[in-house]
Amino acid sequence: MNRKNMTTLLSRIVLEQDTEMQQRVRQFSDGKKTGGTPMAIRFRPAAREFITRVSRNLGISAAELVNMVVEGVMLHTLTPRQATVTHMYDRFWQLMDAHRLSLTNVATLLADMNMGVSVLESRERTLDYLTTPVIGHIAALFGVSPDWFDGTDDHPVRPVMLTRRSEVADPLFSASDITAPTINLVRRESPPPTCGTISHKDDIIVCISRLKKVNGINLRVIDFTGVMRNAKAENKSTDAFLAFCETMRKAARLGAVNTLLAPEHLFSTLAGGREIPVSVFIALNNYCVFSENRGGVHCWGVDDMKGILNSEFYLSPEWEDYRNKISRHIE
User: What's the domain of life for this entry (predicted)?
Assistant: First the structure.
């Protein structure tokens, strides 16, 4: 029996390719034009609605979207090595676009690596410059995984599973920061219906955002993402951690302590490290604006913010000692 599912179809595409198909794919991957007659396709209602909505959101035609998806399948299934090269180039620009950097901004940012405008305007020349050391440098600068950058991993970041609240404090403060870092704390907007244990529905995602200045370019990056398990409102250790964050903000050691609620799809994406964190926060900000316009609430409730609202009361002796230690170290 030939089952019609995606896994089987992709397998058969790989195994049943012929010489003519290989030639067509090579021509496409080399950027050469190929001939052919137009094709009309009838989509099922759900697929048609999906294509229409996604293409509208992306600002491209439905035909262009379908072509890009099919071309992606061609490259990934029939020319995996070429797909890896394409990944590097595409992810390079995905990273730059996520941080709202123009072509000239990127050229200025990477001037020390001689990646000027003439290099960046050429796909081939840009790829020539993306050596392992350069990939490592850029990945460290933007706080992403070099393995994701070079196409060997699908996750831009690997969030840290935080077993102790103090694991956040160590990467939070650095003497080299030009401005105080910002800490973003994200809870689920509502418990997921499929969540089987309370430890998951009460998670908090912790993201540390820093402002870097490189060659005169100001760059806001998220260089740490972690997940606190079982951080429910009545958890005293969570309240103490929030109190610590607030006291550090009052002392100007933190720029801000942002407490946000995220819909399940954005929360799970951020917690899983499946997208560039900055991109997730842009999407979350857009969602919050849309929600506010409809009377929605996207900030934590009073019970969740006790440690922030009454920081002196909830600051534990351990966190107070840690605060004093960090203050002495930074000074």
Answer: Bacteria
Question: pLDDT (tens digit, 9 = 90+) per residue, 252-264?
Answer: 889 999 999 999 9
154 domain residue, yes or no:
no
Any residues with CB less than 8 A from the CB of 50 and at least 6 apart, and which? none
* Residues spanned by the domain of 144: 82-149
Q: Is residue 116, in this structure, part of any structural domain at all?
A: yes
The predicted model scores a pTM of: 0.84
| C-alpha to C-alpha distance for 280 and 19, rounded to whole angstroms | 42
**Helix (H/G/I), strand (E/B), else coil: 218:** strand
Contact 186, 212 (CB under 8 A): no
Whether residues 126 and 178 share a domain: the answer is no
Domains of the chain: total = 3
Decide if 1 is inside a domain.
Answer: no
R_g over Cα of the chain? 24
**Between 33 and 288, where is the model more confident?**
288
Residue 316 CA to residue 165 CA, distance in Å, equals: 12
Q: Supply φ then ψ for residue 218, to 5 degrees.
A: -80, 130
Q: Which two tokens stand for residue 7?
A: 């896994």
Cα angle 83, 44, 62 (rounded to 5 degrees) comes to 50
- Number of helices and strands (H, E) in the chain? 18, 5
Per the structure block, which two tokens stand in for 254? 């933190």
Residues 225/274, Cβ–Cβ less than 8 Å:
no
Residue range 268-291, pLDDT digits in tens: 999 999 999 999 999 999 988 877
| Calpha distance 77→74 (Å, rounded) | 6
